[in-house]
Amino acid sequence: MEVLLGLDIGDIRIGVALSDELGVAAHPLCTLTRKNRKVDLIAISDLVSIHKVERVVIGLPISLDGSIGPQAEKIQNFAKRLAHVIDIPIEFQDERFTTAEAEDLLRELNKDTKEQKELIDEVAAVIILTDYLNQNKE
Questions:
Q1: DSSP 8-state assignment for residue 52
Q2: What pLDDT, in 10s, does the model give residues 47-75?
Q3: How many domains, the chain?
Q4: H or E segment and range at residue 32
Q5: For position 81, which CATH number holds?
Q6: pLDDT tens, residue by residue, 79-90
Q7: Which of 13, 114, 129, 132 would be a feasible disulfide site paired with 26, CB 3.0-4.6 Å?
Q8: pLDDT band (50, 70, 90) for residue 23
């Protein structure tokens, strides 16, 4: 199997998750605070190198009607730029409702508002990557 990196890309932060080597489970890795495009791309490229990632999965916020809205277009453009920096496949995973799902999960774990804010992006990235892994089991 291959190691995958899951990304939940927001305007302020990027949640990052990593799969295990068997491709069975995903776990939170970190949250990157966005600086500028160049710094963001380098940070992701560094994570790919450090963790020997073989595929990146990016959450794509598809509209409820299935269309690609402005936020999804921004993420697709970011992915195109990332593809010039890393030499591994990049795939998209529908991320509708992942933030709400992450919020519910953190509430169930009795995380206070501050803890939720710190963890929400990583947890959303875990959900994105887990959904991808579940849909792509061999």
A1: T
A2: 999 999 999 999 998 877 878 888 899 99
A3: 1
A4: strand 26-33
A5: 3.30.420.140
A6: 999 999 999 999
A7: 129
A8: confident
**Ordered strands of the 90-94 beta sheet:** 26-33, 13-19, 4-9, 55-60, 90-94
Beta bridge partners of 12: none
17 Cβ partners below 8 Å, 6+ apart? 5, 6, 7, 8, 26, 27, 28, 29, 122, 125, 126, 128, 129
Q: Report pTM.
A: 0.87
For the CA atoms of 133, 93, 87, 9, the dihedral, rounded to the nearest 10 degrees, stands at -120
- Structural tokens at position 13: 């932060």
Find the radius of gyration of the CA atoms of the chain. 14
Task: Give the mean model confidence (pLDDT) for residues 25-37.
Answer: 94
Angle at 117 between CA 116 and CA 120, to 5 degrees: 70
Q: Is beta strand 55-60 parallel, antiparallel or unpaired with respect to 13-19?
A: unpaired
Tell me the residue range of the domain where 42 lies: 4-135
